[in-house]
Design a protein that fits this description.
Layout: H1 2-22, H2 29-35, E1 39-43, E2 45-47, E3 58-60, H3 61-74, E4 76-77, H4 80-89, E5 96-103, H5 107-119, E6 124-127, H6 140-147, E7 152-155, H7 168-186, E8 192-194, H8 202-210, E9 215-217, E10 237-238, H9 245-252, H10 257-266
Parallel strand pairs: 1-5, 1-10, 2-3, 4-5, 5-6, 6-7, 8-9
Length: 276
């Protein structure tokens, strides 16, 4: 995890300059495709404004609130499963947005959830079940309190490992057991999963489908989500520590997409796969 934090910190530092060089022109069809699609945003931890953090996966509480307020004015907000259903059936779906959280840090309950409630915005939490009830992770009681008010729950595996490296038996266990645990806890079927670290391949996707999930979220940030897209390769835009108002809006407007597209061409592990 420390290596992952370091990579993301440097990536975020370089994004602004690179986006300025590779930003789309107004008449670029790629920009039009981005803006006609639907956003899924990825958060991890929301922290109090007084907390000094260098972790790029944190977002100060006041900044998160301003982002939620802006999103709720501009987009139709929904859960991930609701968006997946629309993408499978509605030819005119656009300008929808989803807030998701990975990992299940307790700050979701203490800092993010009150803001989501205040603005009437739903969210989807992807939880790795191996750390629940162990601070600083969410407790099962906190999860149930949020579920009672419309928060959607999905799986993030059991142990937050690179799923590509597991044997078939271990992968099957991670997928099935995490889903069964969460389904038993909240009392209804779990349909969604987020790939830990955003890493997946054809084999992982096949096991995710076989385990009964109907959609899965990646960490791919080069495009938005459109009608007919593969529900097991949903794109998500990661929001981090230094995404102030200007940078946040530039990300949502698609000005970083060309940077990410270039990055994925260079980084084989992050390329979209073709499921056989």
């Amino acid at each position: 995890m420390r290596a992952c934090i370091g990579r993301v910190r440097w990536r975020e530092r370089l994004l602004g300059a690179a986006a300025g060089l590779l930003s789309f022109q107004d008449n670029n069809p790629l920009l039009e495709a981005w803006q006609s699609g639907n956003l899924i945003l990825l958060y991890h931890r929301i922290v109090d404004d007084s907390e000094i953090s260098l972790n790029p996966f944190t977002v100060p509480r006041s900044l998160f609130e301003s982002q939620v307020a802006w999103l709720s004015r501009i987009y139709t907000m929904m859960t991930a499963s609701e968006l997946v259903r629309l993408l499978a059936s509605s030819p005119s779906v656009s300008r929808c947005a989803v807030i998701t959280f990975d990992d299940g840090h307790e700050s979701i309950f203490t800092h993010a959830w009150p803001i989501l409630q205040a603005y009437g915005v739903p969210a989807t939490l992807f939880l790795d079940t191996g750390r629940l009830d162990v601070p600083p992770a969410l407790s099962c009681a906190q999860i149930m309190a949020m579920v009672a008010h419309g928060i959607e729950i999905g799986s993030h595996s059991i142990s937050h490992v690179d799923l590509r490296l597991l044997s078939d038996a271990a992968l099957r266990y991670e997928m099935a057991t995490s889903r069964e645990f969460l389904s038993g806890m909240i009392g209804h079927r779990i349909t969604g999963l987020a790939y830990p670290f955003g890493y997946y391949d054809d084999r992982v996707v096949r096991f995710v489908r076989q385990a009964g999930y109907t959609y899965a979220c990646t960490c791919l940030q080069h495009r938005t989500n459109h009608l007919g897209d593969d529900p097991y390769q949903l794109s998500r835009l990661e929001i981090n520590l230094h995404d102030n108002r200007e940078r946040f809006q530039r990300k949502l407007d698609g000005h970083y997409a060309a940077v990410y597209a270039t990055l994925y061409r260079l980084q084989a592990a992050m390329r979209p796969c073709r499921v056989k």
